Each structure stands twice: as structure tokens, then as C-alpha cells.
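Record filed below.
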Amino acid sequence: MTYIEPTPPGTPQPDIPPPGTPGPDIDPAGSPDEVPPIEPGGGGEGDSRPYGRGGV
């Protein structure tokens, strides 16, 4: 954690105030609560690929 020392009294303030912090690009309320399940199917037993042989 970073410690930021308080500004001592009498310290001059900047002439231009810093810009406000922008909001998030993605609205958290619009995201789903859960990730949809992976579609069934895929390779043979012991195959680590979660889907079928696409493109082969």
C-alpha cells in the first residue's frame, strides 16, 4: 500500500483542477451474473479440447 502524505496547510493549489475520473467503459449492471455453460460435445476421451474438430 502506498502512503500519501497529507498536504500541509498553506500549500498553493494548482491553477487548473485535475479532470474527473472517467466511469467504467462497461456497465456492470448489463453483464450476466453467470457465464453460460459450454456446449456439450467435443473430442474423445482424454482430449483436452472442449469442442469438436472444427476446421479439420
Remarks:
- The radius of gyration is 26 Å.
- The mean pLDDT is 74.
